[in-house]
Structure to design on (254 residues):
């Protein structure tokens, strides 16, 4: 299974429009972060986790082949705002989108023309499937376990694929859901910045503490804003062994 990080930034992306900080002015491409999304692929199955407003830019460098499923973590624009851009992939058939009840409702509100009785010609053909935390299912040859985490007061989903787990926008997790993470080898989890606590996002220290609770061998941090610092400096000097910042375009083979 191969993982490709399409985006590792927050809702504003990095660089932030109008910002003159050292990260936003950096010439290192590792410091340029589009909105969060990953591809999860085998030889026969291709899944996309979240489809934000940068989707078109993110997917252009990737081979053009069928997307077998889009998994939605939650109904915020930076995670769903690119859904109309899946239209070219509809030549392979209907795009199946998997989301919890709240995100399904958000999809219907954001893209009502895709679900109207009389659809405008050319709109994306989307098949919407409601899923629930703790109820596993398969897409092709990839097993998916949805995991409920809390984005402040909002329940959202993370996803486990074998011994790989992808979680973004988490603030807390209940103990019963933590049990679904036993035996995880590689963990991807959100870490907004080092300082200045946020009401609905983890800081770096929170993410490191969570990774230790899970017992993951390797942890990659995502959903980072410009305040996290320069990629190279943070990875070299500010993180413990086994924890690193992910970056756009990073690939993992599991």
């Amino acid at each position: 299974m191969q993982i490709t990080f399409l985006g590792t930034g927050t809702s504003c992306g990095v660089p932030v429009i109008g910002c003159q900080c050292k990260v936003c002015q950096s010439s290192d491409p590792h410091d340029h972060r589009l909105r969060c999304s990953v591809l999860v692929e085998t030889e026969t199955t291709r899944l996309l986790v979240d489809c934000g407003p940068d989707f078109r830019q993110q997917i252009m460098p990737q081979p053009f082949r069928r997307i077998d499923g889009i998994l939605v973590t939650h109904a915020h624009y930076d995670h769903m705002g690119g859904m109309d851009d899946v239209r070219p992939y509809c030549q392979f058939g209907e795009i199946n989108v998997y989301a919890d009840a709240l995100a399904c409702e958000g999809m219907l509100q954001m893209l009502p023309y895709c679900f109207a009785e009389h659809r405008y010609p050319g709109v994306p053909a989307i098949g919407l499937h409601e899923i629930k935390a703790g109820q596993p299912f398969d897409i092709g040859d990839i097993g998916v376990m949805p995991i409920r985490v809390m984005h402040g007061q909002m329940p959202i989903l993370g996803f486990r694929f074998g011994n790989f787990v992808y979680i973004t926008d988490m603030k807390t997790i209940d103990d019963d859901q933590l049990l679904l993470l036993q035996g995880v080898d590689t963990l991807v989890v959100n870490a907004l910045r080092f300082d200045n606590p946020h009401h609905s996002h983890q800081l770096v220290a929170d993410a490191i503490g969570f990774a230790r609770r899970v017992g993951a061998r390797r942890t990659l941090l995502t959903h980072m804003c410009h305040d996290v610092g320069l990629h190279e400096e943070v990875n070299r000097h500010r993180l413990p062994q086994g924890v690193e910042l992910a970056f756009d375009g990073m690939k993992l083979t599991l």
Notes: The two ends are 5 Å apart (CA to CA).
